[in-house]
Amino acid sequence: MAARIITPLAIICAAAAIIFVIFQMRKPPEKQEVERPVLMVSTAPIVRNEEGLIFHVDGVVVPYREINLSSEVAGRITYRDDSLRSGAYVTKGQPLLEIDPRKYALEVERLSKEVEQAEVAIRETDVDVENTQELILLSKQNLELQKKQLARMESLLARNATTPSAVDSEQQTMITAQNQLLQLENQVRSFATRKQGLQRAKELAEARLEQAKLDFENTKVVSPVNGVIITDDVEQDSYVQVGTALYTIEDTSAAEVRCSLRMDELAWLWRKQLGKTIDPLAARGSKDYLLPQVPVAVSYELAGRTYQWDGVLSRFDGLGLDERTRTAPVLIRVPNPDQAKLNGEMVKSRGPSALLRGMFVDVKVQVQPEMPIWRVPESALSLYSAQAIQETMTAGQAAKTRTHSDESRPRFVLWLVRDGKLEIEHVEVLVIQDDYALINGENVDLRADDQIVISPMGYPRVGLPVKVEG
């Protein structure tokens, strides 16, 4: 019984020993290093942008001025140029219509006679004053004689050569001469007062005459500007009152384009105006509500051709932001709306003759900030969360970013290839346009010979060896 148990155990132990010996006799496999594949990336060069920032916004052409002509006098329309209807072009000073001028001509003539009559009355007063002055001179001479005569009579009375009654008679004669002189002097003062009244009456008549002449001139209605008639509201033989609408004329000496700019775009314009890159809201002054007069280009596409006009950023269209779009409405002034350019040359026959109201146009605003700007492909940008950015930053980069970055903007990074390895640079994107991004060159370590990674990468990290395709 014991042998039946021991025999299998011995066989098992012998087999285990044989297997152990066999494993001990086998040579261990040789270790071989596996070559990991190098990450292949596509790159693009970084380019220094010399054109500055360019904003493209949509706009619509609006009238520069619309002039409402109203009747300044009442009367019947006796003449109207029937060819000057809505849509007709008129020049400055061109006659449009005439209101019956006869009543106003008669009023001018009547008031002219009143002015002449006032002048005659003033001349008569001057003659009366001259005559009275001569009488005063004679009266003074007579008074002197009476004084001498009275003195002689008093001398005779002292010698008892005459009677007191004779002396009294001479005194009465002298008093009469004095009274006559005083009356003449009073007449001169009265004439001066009357002359002032006549002069005031003449001035009033002259003012009425000027008003009558103005009314007579206003019977002829002419175009105040070069422009196009928008509406014509009266016909010949119609009777019009003062203030009756006659015409509405659009001034074509200039045109305006209404468009809207975002606040970040306005910020660059204000920074350019201030001459330094600081928060524009920190600057205060008398020009807070004015826009810098920045040149802009207005373009309109027609039949595959793009026509351009030169304009300038003029002013805000009102004040405040649009509540729906949160943009600021502005107006672009085009001083020469009839001078279109094609490829930089003036054209007249092959394109639109002028900017017309209602045209939808493209507005190009160009700003040259006081900072270096780099241009990179949009595909080179990587949008990172704030936590991921902080994890990839050194202490110095994090401090620099906190100091100079705009927290309201998305946080972007660029991956660069330097010496065959990946490096990261945290950047501020100013604007993205035409598949390119413009980068703020301040406080970033970018070089003209840098190669920017534009191909997608799974898990990039700083220092990872890479190989540039091609």
UniProtKB/TrEMBL annotation:
The keyword Transmembrane applies. InterPro entries: MdtA-like_BSH. GO terms for cellular component: efflux pump complex. Keywords: Coiled coil, Membrane, Transmembrane, Transmembrane helix. It comes from the Bacteria. GO terms for molecular function: efflux transmembrane transporter activity. Pfam families: BSH_RND. Residues 66-247 form the Multidrug resistance protein MdtA-like barrel-sandwich hybrid domain. Residues 108-135, 167-215 form a coiled coil. The chain crosses the membrane at residues 6-23. Signal peptide: none annotated. PANTHER family: MULTIDRUG RESISTANCE PROTEIN MDTA. This is Multidrug resistance protein MdtA-like barrel-sandwich hybrid domain-containing protein. It comes from Blastopirellula marina DSM 3645.
